[in-house]
Amino acid sequence: MKGTKLPGTEINVINEVERGRFKHVLFDFDGTVSLLREGWQLVMGPLMVEMISGGGSPSCLPEIENDVREYIEESTGIQTILQMERLVEMVQARGLVPDDQILDAQGYKKIYNDRLMECVNERIKDLENGTLTPKDVTLRGALDFLERLSRKNVTMYIFSGTDRDDVRNEARLVGVAPYFQEIWGALREYKDYNKEMVLKEIIATNNLHGSEVLIVGDGPVEIRNARDNDCVSIGVASDEIRGHGWNMDKYPRLVKAGADIMVPDFSDGPALIDYLFPE
Predict the structure, then answer these.
(1) Residues of the chain whose pLDDT is less than 70?
(2) DSSP secondary structure string, 37-62?
């Protein structure tokens, strides 16, 4: 496991960075804070394979499954519509589905969202009736970490690949919405919103320099955005099924994307705050 572990914690420092100057912090949402959508990959993966293969079992099925798995791993953090646009390309490239049966990206997105929301809506119902609590549907320590971070005179945001209305509603449901000045999510047109666009706008509007911006996420996309804009990043290699502990499949992807600090969750939140804001 690459990195230097802070004593008594699971915090791994990959790159020594300038600390203590953070003014703005951007969080990914799903898998970083919220677990309401845990298992989305297990919905998207089979959906993509089904659509590419035409619902059959062609000889190239193992190859299709591998291509889909690699794409989902690499694209975690981008907007769903872009993943569906890539699905259209993959369906067309394989040639196993008649042209008149190939959907557009919005069509595939609707099928994906309908399947995913069956599980998500069950969790939301359990949350609303008290069967689940916000701690049950957020990454371990996330609520306490956000509370502690909010005392550090920083402005916090969510920027998510999930549709804007959904991420705003889900942030409210899990009890984190009050911590964030703005909650961004995907719009119908990609050109109207993406994570890097938000990041660049915050930097320009507030005349910020790299070490004044911290990005926290479990996907390679936002970590690469941080690296490309000279910001500091925390990669969250979260085990979304358990809600805590390392997911060692995520770890190397986030390090490769350029993460400066790696954590499995926010169990070591107080120590992480102390590291980010040394006295």
Answers:
(1) 190
(2) TTTHHHHHHHHHHHHHHTTS--TTHH
Is 56 contained in some domain?
yes
Co-location of 13 and 73 in the same domain: no
Q: What is the CATH number of the domain that holds 154?
A: 3.40.50.1000
How far is Cα 204 from Cα 61, in angstroms, rounded to an integer?
Answer: 47
What tokens appear for 165 in the block? 């209305």
Mark which of 102, 128, 154 sits at the end of a domain.
128
- What are the start-end ranges of the H helices in the chain? 40-53, 61-75, 80-94, 105-128, 142-150, 164-173, 195-205, 220-228, 250-257, 269-276
In the block, residue with structure tokens 């369906």: 91
Do 94 and 182 lie in one domain? The reply is no
Look at residue 133 and tell me if it is in a domain. no
CA–CA separation, 18 and 213 (whole Å): 11
Cα–Cα distance, 82 to 51 (Å, whole number):
16
**Is the four-CA dihedral 160, 164, 166, 170 of positive or negative sign?**
positive
173 and 262 housed in the same domain: yes
Supply the pLDDT for residue 190.
65
Global model pTM greater than 0.85? yes
pLDDT at 209: 87
Residue 90: exposure state from Cβ atoms within 10 A (0-12, 13-18, ≥19)? middle
